[in-house]
């Protein structure tokens, strides 16, 4: 799993940069983001995989922010530390897209929070992502049961 964690570290680093420059007139280029990962763990393939994951996760950051805000009204996204906000966005993407099993995504997010954020961050990240996992699971079960019911009625 070290390669997977290294990919997530690279993804988090790239997402941090995207977040920091989202108000800029121009987002950093793929080449600039990849170059910034040169000193990150892993080889160039790990860096490319991390950047690809970051770009896919960044594509859902608005939905992630909305989901997190609904679950943590006392800590809206704009008040969260940048690292926590992007750890949550990354794990949200992995959970809702099925890119990783939910429990793996949560565990990895908690480990990233331990490594890169504050003492209280792992518990916060775990609590929010656990709720997202339960909502996502419940939503999938409802869709599955509605689909099965429709077949029976025909």
Overview of this structure, please?
By secondary structure, the chain is mainly α. It has a single domain, classed as NusB-like (N-utilizing Substance Protein B Homolog, Chain A). Helices cover 75% and strands 0% of the residues. α4 (61-71) packs across α5 and α6 (102-116) runs antiparallel to α7. Mean pLDDT is 89; it is low at 149-154.
Which descriptors would you attach to this protein?
single chain, 154 residues, mainly alpha, N-utilizing Substance Protein B Homolog, Chain A, globular, disordered C terminus
What is the first-to-last residue Cα distance?
Answer: 46 Å
Helix content: over 70%
Morphology? globular
Estimate the strand proportion: under 5%
Would you tell me the structural class of the helices and strands?
A: mainly alpha
DSSP helical segment count: 7
Name of the CATH superfamily = NusB-like
Provide the CATH topology.
N-utilizing Substance Protein B Homolog, Chain A
């Amino acid at each position: 799993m070290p390669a997977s964690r290294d990919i997530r570290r690279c993804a988090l680093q790239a997402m941090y940069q995207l977040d920091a420059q989202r108000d800029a007139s121009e987002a950093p280029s793929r080449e600039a983001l990849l170059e910034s990962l040169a000193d990150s763990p892993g080889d160039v393939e790990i860096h490319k995989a991390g950047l690809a994951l970051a770009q896919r996760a960044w594509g859902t950051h608005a939905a992630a922010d909305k989901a997190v805000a609904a679950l943590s009204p006392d800590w809206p996204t704009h008040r969260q530390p940048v690292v926590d906000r992007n750890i949550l966005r990354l794990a949200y993407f992995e959970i809702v897209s099925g890119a990783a099993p939910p429990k793996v995504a949560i565990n990895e997010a908690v480990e990233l929070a331990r490594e890169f954020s504050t003492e209280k961050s792992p518990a916060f990240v775990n609590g929010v992502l656990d709720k997202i996992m339960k909502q996502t699971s419940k939503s999938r079960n409802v869709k599955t049961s509605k689909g099965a019911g429709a077949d029976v009625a025909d």
